[in-house]
Give the backbone structure.
Amino acid sequence: MFLQRLVEYAERPGFDSPPDSYAETPIRYLIELDADGRLLKPSLTDTADASQRELRRGLRYLAPAVRRTSAVKALLLVDNATYVLGRAKDDTSGSDERARACRQAFYELVADCAQSTGDPGVRAVASFLEGQGSAQIVLEDDFDGTANISFSVAGQLPFERREVQRYWADRNETQENVMQCLVCGQIRPAQARLQRAIKGIPGGQPSGTAIISANESAFESYGLEASLIAPICGACAERSHLALNRLLRDEAHHLIVGKSAFVFWTREATEFSFLEMIAQPQPDDVRQLLLSVYGRRAGPVEANRFYAAALGANGGRVQVRTWLDTPLEEAQRNLARWFVRQRIVGRWGEEPRPLGIRSLAAATVRELGDVPAQTVQSLLLAAVGGRPLPSGLAYQVVQRTRAEQTVQPHHAAMLKLALCSQQPDQEEPMTQLDLSNTHPAYLCGRLLAELEQAQFAASPNVRASIVDRYYGTACTAPATVFGTLIQNAQPHLAKLQRDRPGAYAGIQRTLEEILAALGGFPRTLSLNDQSLFALGYYHQRAHNRAQAIAYKEAQS
């Protein structure tokens, strides 16, 4: 299904697919010939531009390209110095012999193309290679033997000729392994090894990774080897790989988080961008999306579908970790619900701001680069697939709050998202301080925040607060620590009563309200309870800060 949708994407009007077995390739050097194949100048024309990153390896052209192994296999009219000039890469044993074999293979391929197509430009190149023209070429000191070399004949590039393109496509169309293609369903020759590679996936080889491949007998079945374990015809392989590579290059269709790559697209073009909403959501865009859930659409969605895939790589192989195919309208509805569930008041009591998938994932780890693929995959499925988050994510966030001895906005948003995805009825009351919430864990979190408030109000320059010392114990076993915390708070309250009676009255009133509703301290807290504890602490802190700001503004 994944490959079928990619093929459909490549068949869209305006996709502008390259010729079969052609790919965008950097060509650094051009050998300039006249119409008869004579060398116009002894030096190579260098197309590279060191000042531009994309041109350091030369100008990019749609040129013949297939995947090849260490065996001798020439590319048509475009190849490196070993094939075009017979220049050995190094001085190791057998390198000269291999270089001669490579050049001979390159010449024979060009000669066959010239004979088959009758193209005058290809005949000129064949004439040049047949003679001693290569010996006349003078190489500069900074010559790069690994870069691609091609030919310019009377100012034109022979590999761009239509006849040459058809020849190369026919040559690479095998008549072996005729079987049913898993993508199009037609009985056609299947590729024993896919000729294109997927590039841009973290963890993959720089030369690219394969979607279908088997290199060990354990992965083979029914006598099928390599890419034949999941047979796909040349046309479907070409289109699916072109589509996926283009999605991975297009900033509007892919997202890299940690060691995972995500691609998003729709069956029909739409102005609504899931990537922008998930990666860097803006409040106005999210507000418009939320309105669409209640009747106003955020974009055209009728009869359209949304596709998403989570990809990873292991050496030379692509891992399709998640595949999602859902109606676009449902995906938008799920995304709107995702933003509602993560809504959390700001640290200073400001309006909630939507968080992207990176910020939420960062709440589970110390460094964003350490985010496991499963975490981002779960967030993606929750965002557009409407699935609940696994409890393991909440556990990771709770562990981070205990390690950091605090609760940051992305911690609180992630915990609320996890709780609400499993208990949807808790969505709105958990956005900010909820005075009606009498859950013991939530009240314990509020109590810790208020005791910290008393400490800071009495001793503004304190170095280590009670939260720095006791947060981990308070959020797991409240009964073992809160008695001590309340007792230790008495000197702070006495000092406030003497020096700041107004602040004392407010804090004392809040403490009494919390303790009256609490009744007793739980001995231990479950994972969900620890999440509620963190939210209670965060809500109370944000409420206290907002009140302090409002008081200062009223006094000014």
